[in-house]
C-alpha cells in the first residue's frame, strides 16, 4: 500500500461503511501554546500522560453534501481498493471554503492522503470561485498543524474557550487556519 498514490473522488455508496470501519483515533501527548507568525515546530509544548482521542465521526452529519447543489461536497481518498480518508468541504458564511472535516484512517497516515484531500478541497474552492479555505483543529493535534503549515495555511485565530463546555479541565484550544489563494 505504501507504493500507491491516493486517488480522491466524490463520496459514493461506500462512504457509510468506510466511516464505520475506519480508525480515526489519535494519540494525544500534550498541548502546544500556539504563537502567531511562528513555525509550529517553535511553539512551546507541554507534555502530558498520553491518551487516545476518538473523534467520533458520524457519516450522517454531512450527508446533505452528497447531493448536487447542497453547497458542499464529500470526497473520499482511496489507496487501491480501500477507502482510507475523507474531506468534507462547504461554502462558509464568510465566502471561504470551510473544511468541515478531514480524517485519515490510522493505517494510511503519513502516505500523503491528507495532502491529496486538501488539494481536492482547494480545487473545489477554486471551482466555486471562493478566495480561500479555512479550517479548525486543536492545539493537541500537532501532526495536523504541521500539515496545514506545510500546505500553505497560516494560523489566523485562537479560541481558548471553545471546548470548555465539553471538559472544563481540558487545555484543548481551537486553532483556525486559513489559506487565502491571493497569498500564493
TrEMBL record:
<keyword id="KW-0808">Transferase</keyword>
<protein>
    <submittedName>
        <fullName>GNAT family acetyltransferase</fullName>
    </submittedName>
</protein>
<keyword id="KW-0012">Acyltransferase</keyword>
<dbReference type="InterPro" id="IPR008125">
    <property type="entry name" value="Streptothricin_AcTrfase"/>
</dbReference>
<dbReference type="Pfam" id="PF00583">
    <property type="entry name" value="Acetyltransf_1"/>
</dbReference>
<dbReference type="GO" id="GO:0016747">
    <property type="term" value="F:acyltransferase activity, transferring groups other than amino-acyl groups"/>
</dbReference>
<dbReference type="InterPro" id="IPR000182">
    <property type="entry name" value="GNAT_dom"/>
</dbReference>
<feature type="domain" description="N-acetyltransferase">
    <location>
        <begin position="35"/>
        <end position="183"/>
    </location>
</feature>
<dbReference type="InterPro" id="IPR016181">
    <property type="entry name" value="Acyl_CoA_acyltransferase"/>
</dbReference>
<dbReference type="InterPro" id="IPR050832">
    <property type="entry name" value="Bact_Acetyltransf"/>
</dbReference>
Amino acid at each position: 500500500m505504501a507504493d500507491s498514490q491516493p486517488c480522491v473522488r466524490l463520496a459514493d455508496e461506500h462512504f457509510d461503511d468506510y466511516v464505520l470501519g475506519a480508525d480515526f483515533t489519535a494519540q494525544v501527548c500534550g498541548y502546544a501554546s500556539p504563537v502567531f507568525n511562528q513555525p509550529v515546530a517553535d511553539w512551546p509544548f507541554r507534555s502530558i500522560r498520553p491518551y487516545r482521542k476518538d473523534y467520533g465521526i458520524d457519516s450522517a452529519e454531512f450527508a446533505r453534501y452528497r447531493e448536487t447543489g447542497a453547497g458542499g461536497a464529500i470526497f473520499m481518498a482511496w489507496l487501491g481498493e480501500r477507502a482510507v480518508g475523507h474531506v468534507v468541504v462547504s461554502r462558509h458564511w464568510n465566502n471561504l471554503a470551510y473544511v468541515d472535516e478531514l480524517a485519515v484512517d490510522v493505517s494510511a497516515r503519513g502516505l500523503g492522503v491528507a495532502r491529496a484531500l486538501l488539494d481536492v478541497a482547494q480545487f473545489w474552492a477554486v471551482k466555486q470561485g471562493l478566495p480561500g479555505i479555512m479550517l479548525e483543529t486543536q492545539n493537541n493535534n500537532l501532526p495536523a498543524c504541521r500539515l496545514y503549515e506545510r500546505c500553505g495555511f497560516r494560523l489566523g485565530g485562537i479560541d481558548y474557550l471553545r471546548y470548555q463546555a465539553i471538559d472544563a479541565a481540558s487545555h484543548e484550544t481551537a486553532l483556525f487556519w486559513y489559506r487565502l489563494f491571493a497569498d500564493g
